[in-house]
Amino acid sequence: MTPYQLGPLLYEGKAKRIFQTDQPDLVAVEFKDDATAFNALKKAELKGKGILNCSISALLFEHLQRAGVPTHYLGVQGHHWMLVRPVRVIPIEVVIRNVAAGSLCKQMPIAAGTPLDPPLLDLYYKDDAYGDPLLSEARLERLSLVNGEQRRELEALARRVNAVLLDLFSGLGLQLVDFKLELGFTADGALVVADEISPDTCRLWDLDVVDAQERILDKDRFRQDLGGVIEAYGEVLKRVQGVIHGPSLYG
Ligand code: 5GP
């Protein structure tokens, strides 16, 4: 028995389905096994990915909340359901990069693996129809998605998330290379971290492995056809579970 009734589907994304519930302050997120990359040009079903990402994300949200970072997370139900607060997601993807990789190295003369200190913070306009383009200051202002104060709050929150996760992952022998966050406002106007934090949204390298492909424990294994995606996500979960107990059942 769940302490809520599932309501209608509100939104279906590439890796998750979001459902209304019979409680106004509760939304249910189902993590799917679907994997997509390159704006959904590449697709596959990876059995077990939904459960792994739900568990990893839940544990990371719980860790962040204990560190004082506000998130939409409330708990889990079953293996691939997460209960969250309803949030008006800001259509901005905040990417923090601690080490150069991915699109940064394709767009600029920076070698993959170059440490970035201080970490680089990039904002992208979240809209698949436009391919999630990088935002300039002027474009951000033109779109009026956030005011100056909200922008500062959003960036400060993302940098706090980075500091907490860098510390956590380095203790687990993992390099947090970069990650994408989505943030949003709750009904009472609080800014919180939303969406998910998982190997789908972070680059994580095994610090004990030198080989540039073998060390990858994130979605780049899928993007680059390296195989072993589920095994890599499983390794991340195993290490996170070694230090964070849970996740907590909702209700
Ligand atoms: P890049 O800009 O190199 O493509 O991505 C930087 C980081 O943000 C990577 O960890 C990547 O997984 C994450 N990221 C950026 N955009 C998206 C997105 O639309 N979906 C997901 N799942 N991750 C993203």
What does this structure look like?
This protein has helices spanning 49-66, 103-107, 137-143, 148-170, 220-223, 229-241, and strands spanning 6-12, 16-21, 27-31, 34-37, 42-45, 73-77, 81-84, 88-99, 115-125, 174-185, 191-194, 202-206. By secondary structure, it is of the alpha+beta class. It folds into 2 domains: 6-84, Phosphorylase Kinase, domain 1 (2-Layer Sandwich); 88-227, ATP-grasp fold, B domain (D-amino Acid Aminotransferase, Chain A, domain 1, 2-Layer Sandwich). The strands form 3 sheets. The protein has a 5-stranded antiparallel beta sheet with strand order 1-2-3-7-6. Strands 8, 9, 10, 11 and 12 form a 5-stranded antiparallel beta sheet that branches. A two-stranded antiparallel ribbon has the order 4-5. A hairpin with a 3-residue loop joins strand 6 (73-77) and strand 7 (81-84). Helix 1 (49-66) packs parallel to helix 6. It starts with 5 loop residues before the first strand and ends in a 10-residue tail after the last helix. Residues 93, 95, 102-104, 132, 178-180, 200-203, 219 line the site of guanosine-5'-monophosphate (5GP). The site of guanosine-5'-monophosphate has 14 residues, from strand 8, helix 2, strand 10 and strand 12.
